[in-house]
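Tutorial handout. Part one gives the primary structure; part two gives the three-dimensional structure as tokens.
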Amino acid sequence: MSAELTIKGDATAAGCPSGLEPGGADATDEEGAFVDPAPFVRRRNGVAELELAVFGAKCAGCIAKIETAMKSLDGMERARLNLSTGRLSLVWRDGAVVPRRVTQTLTDIGYRAAPFDPAAMENDHDAEGRLLLRSLGVAGFAMANVMLLSVSVWAGGADMGPGTRGLMHWASALIAIPAALYAARPFFSSAWSALKNARANMDVPISLAVILALSMSIYEFFAGGEHTYFDAAVMLLFFLLIGRYLDHRLRWRARAAARDLLAMQATTARRLGADGVIEPVAARDIAPGDQVLLSPGDRAPVDGVIIEGESYADTALVTGESAPRKMKPGDEIHAGVVNTSARLVMRARATVENSLIADLARLIEAGEQSRSRYVRLADRAASLYVPVVHTLALVTFLGWWLLFDAGVRASMMNAVAVLIITCPCALGLAAPAVQVVATGRLFKRGVLVKSGDALERLAEADVMVFDKTGTLTLGRPTLANVAALPAGALEDAAALSRVSRHPLSRAVVEAVGAGKAADGATEFPGLGLEGVSNGQRIRFGSAQWVGGVERDDAGDGATLEAWLRRGDAAPIRFVFEDAARADAGTVIRQLAARGFAMELLSGDREEAASATAARLGLSAWRAGVSPQDKAARLADLRAAGAKAAMVGDGLNDAPSLAHAHVSLSPGTAADASQAAADFVYLGGGLQPIVEAVDVSRKARRRVLENFAFAALYNACAIPLAVFGFVTPLIAALAMSGSSMVVTLNALRLSGRKTP
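Part two.
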């Protein structure tokens, strides 16, 4: 599978429908034969399975195109493409599909395929990053050397003879022309893609500025002119490539959300055979109906149902709640759920590709793809700015050449002066300069910004949607009725709890502190703890085991309880709650004052969600919400015209974070949630959210001010350039001055007293 690949076919008919990736990839070997994936096919019980890495898939249209083509093959039962990992999972009736036909079909529709290798996919996906880094290095090298030559020309002035000046220009050309053409490839390809789709982005004026600067410099060199602009071309590329590479790395990390979530899926499992023999197998080999053994600490490899045993399980992936859930025969269990205390046997109901985790990963991908359609302010400005300016430059050239008979050289000089003085650099810097300053300010306040357009999207948000557990609350149970406990009860419970990792035991120990464990303290999975303290046998655990009266609601928002029995005395009830963060109420009020509508979406029980909402003054709330329900609610808000900001921390929040117009996650959140979020805020409070909102709105104002200045500047400067009152040298100086004004305006955002 290491064969060289060639490009053939009609790129407009094959490959990515969005045009983000050229089509026609040919998966043939050196002898022209299609690569046969047959050795990588797995066969079991009359079913054949194959996993392929697909290269060139970039958008949701690619998913539909590839899956439809695969399902059109006779005998194909299932085809699933994961866009984040590039993995195509295929299942067909054994013997119904010739494996080589699969890769040939993919090639026919414009995609390249190979056996799935995560490391190889990671390497292929980051090819863009390597190109940007190489381009940045080339531009930096060229800028440093050409600037040395240019400074010599400028400093020499009238004392430098034409021969010496020509030699300097010749050396500059030898360095700058090949370097600029190589380093500008990312901008050229983006501009060409935009123009082919009848639109203009910021890369169009950047590309034109580079081409004209080089062309004008070459012309001036052969015409014997005093000045060339090779240095301007490579310097522009160097600084723009810095921002482009950093933006690429941030976006690559953002796309890691689905990969991080899929990493929560078990890769191996222990299958129980009909004879009771335990067989270690890969998780992808588990089929519906198989029985799987789950020991304490094991993750469920697929979705299924418990058929034997009782235990507690960490279901944070599904509900977002840290409190363990008791599992018994008949209960459903989802892939990624961790068995925490006792042996369980489950019966599989789905395969790995159809598990809850795989569904959540697909939700994340869909959310990221819909968010990627967001058009930045700079691109929206460019769509209006570029056609007008370029038309004026063309009219200037034709007017001076045809009407005033000024000759090609003078006409070109005036046209180039129009293009230069209209400052594509200032327009290009209008948004990035503000974003750099804003992200730096937020970083000092403990907020990490993962992309420039995240600031724009947060400034537009008008609805704030909160997760409960771990976001508005601390995310762990705390003892709520310490004052009501009889003397010594807390110490006795802590003596037992010191041998347990159960969240309620940890809460009791945290309330007391370090101390001695009870004699003979033993934990009974699913029940509680037992031992001897102060000469008497004590138990701490569930109401049924200890002899207390179990209640559905502990009151005052407390939804968890445990009981302590000391000898033959009456059981003592311990009440636990997930306390709200200290500044949660203040932040809610501050956001309301800034015009946000707010609501709470929680996977917790109704009693806990309603108590938290009432405590914090949130009138809109929903309880028992699944990850899919959260994503659906955000889709409903978008359909209603709202722009929702989602704040969440759990694995179950990752899909909704990806689907929101903009999203924020605390630094303590799960990796998948942080990867899916646009902002990650540090510290134990919520105040950074308010800071992020304020800075984002101020940043948006600064960007709009920069665009307004660029428009005013152009309105004054363009007539002077059109009528020949401005030379390219003066135009370059004016362009530099406008860029400085834009940058200084952006720096106003860095001060503590920002207007």
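Part three, for discussion. The two ends are 60 Å apart (CA to CA). The domain at 6-125 is CATH 3.30.70.100 (Alpha-Beta Plaits).
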